[in-house]
Amino acid sequence: MLFRNCAGGIVFNGEKVFILKNSKGEWALPKGKIRKGSLSVETAIDRVKTETGLDVNVVSTAGETCYEFFSISRQRPVCNEIVWYIMDTKQSEYTVNKEEGFTDGGFFSIDKAIDMITYSQDKSLVSLSYKKYKKLKDIKVALV
User: Fold this and answer.
1) For position 103, which CATH number holds?
2) pTM, 2 dp
3) pLDDT digits (tens, 9 = 90+) for 32-68
4) Structural domain tally of the chain?
5) pLDDT tens digits, residue range 109-126?
6) Which of 3, 7, 95, 137 is an S-S bond match for 44, by CB 3.0 to 4.6 Å?
7) Which residue from 60, 86, 80, 6 is spatially nearest to 38, judged by alpha carbons?
């Protein structure tokens, strides 16, 4: 089995979260493989920028997920271990990167995004991250 370390972002803009639709028709979060010499947080920021065109701020860590699949191109099983970061942006304009294989994307209300997201662990990740994001934002406002 091929093991890949990856990183990604759960990007919030107010009460909405950004999700992407890939070429398989799956709705997911922006993420990618951590290249040699890169930090996970750098990779997460870079993948969000590459896949969505968004400039983001990292608010907090969100946790890790792991999934396995059979890679037809590699002809072997792959295990992706992903470190996630909660991010926010003030931008509402975005660019879905079609060259990266994405067909659609955008900011959606949390409930709508959770309904649309393909995989259950990504649904849970968005739900838990939104709760943490709101709590951190409330603390920040209270400190001001």
Assistant:
1) 3.90.79.10
2) 0.92
3) 999 999 999 999 999 999 999 999 999 999 999 998 9
4) 1
5) 999 999 999 999 999 999
6) 7
7) 6
